[in-house]
Structure formats: structure tokens, C-alpha cells
Amino acid sequence: MSIRTDRVGSVIQREIADLLQQGFGEASHSLVTVTGVRMTDDLGIAYIDVSVLGGDDAQRKTAFLRLERQSTEIRRALAQRIRHQMKRVPEIKFFLDEGPQRRERMDDLFAKIAADRGPDLEDESAGDETSSRGDY
User: Fold this and answer.
1) Residue 133: count of CB within 10 angstroms of its CB
2) How many Cβ atoms sit within 10 Å of the Cβ of residue 132?
3) Statement: residue 132 has pLDDT above 80
4) Nearest one of 90, 76, 95, 104 to 33, comparing CA atoms
5) I need a surface site. Which of 46, 48, 53, 108 has the fewest CB within 10 A?
6) Using an 8 Å Cβ cutoff, are 78 and 91 in contact?
7) Is pLDDT above 50 for 136?
8) What is the pTM of this model?
């Protein structure tokens, strides 16, 4: 990516996040966060990664689908905000970033493994780390 696409992406990320916080995120009870924006080289399309936190999977999916349905209105509002900075407002496409949910699942798995190992094995593995360092 070039410097121009990076700059345009950061402007769009900031403005979309602000729009979602102020006007378009009110009806859902989930927290929608813009985690990243990728621009095409011709600045024609902005791929917007969003993370939806709160509630269960169905509630997150509903909030994301609502966001996709409102993409035309969000693009119009974005155009009003950046009309003096860009000649053409890019088409916006939302993608669901499930990183926080994956991270939570991994934390649960690690906690379960630690609970299955028991406290005795955890103490032994802590002692192994210090002894394996060696003296150099």
C-alpha cells in the first residue's frame, strides 16, 4: 500500500468510527468497533473490518447485518464529512472481525487445560523454565 492509501484509510476509519458511535449504532445493544480499513489502489473501495462485542453470536450477527444494510446511508454521511478532502467517496464494504471472539475461545481453552493439568503440574512447569535457562 502506498502512503496515500494509508492516509485515506486512516481518515475513513476515523470518520466511520465516529459515525457508528454517534448515529448508526444506537439501535443495537452491541459495541461496534472499527478495527481496520484497507483501501484498493485506486481508492475506489474501502474494506472496513468491524468487531461486534456484546451479547451472544446471534445478537452480534444481527448487529453486523444491520450495519451492512445501512452501508448506503453510512456512505452518504461519510461523503458529507470528507467531501472537501476527496473527489470521490469510495464504496464501503464491511467485514466482520472475529478476533476478540477467537481470543476469548482460546483463553477458555487454555484455562480448561490449566485446570485439567492441576496445580501440581503448573508448579513443576514453572520450575522447569528457570532450570532450562542455563548459565552461559
Assistant:
1) 8
2) 7
3) no
4) 95
5) 108
6) no
7) no
8) 0.70
CA gap 132, 130 in Å, rounded: 6
Q: Are 46 and 71 in contact (CB under 8 A)?
A: no
Q: Are 20 and 63 in contact (CB under 8 A)?
A: no
Render pLDDT for 19-61 as a digit per residue (tens, 0 to 9).
988 877 655 567 888 999 999 999 999 999 998 887 778 888 8
Residue recorded with cell 501440581: 120
Q: How many CB atoms lie within 10 A of CB 67?
A: 21
Beta strand extents in 1-136 (DSSP E only): 31-39, 45-53, 91-96
User: Which residues neighbour 119 within 8 Å (Cβ) at sequence distance 6 or greater?
Assistant: none
Angle at 98 between CA 97 and CA 99, to 5 degrees: 95
Nearest to 1, CA basis, from 49, 35, 43, 36: 43
Report pLDDT digits (tens) over 55-112.
778 888 888 898 899 999 999 999 999 988 888 999 999 998 887 767 778 888 888 8
Q: Which residues of 97-118 are buried (b: 16+ CB within 10 A; e: fewer)?
A: beeeeeeeeeeeeeeeeeeeee
In 3D space, the residue among 92, 100, 84, 126 whose CA is nearest the CA of residue 9 turns out to be 92
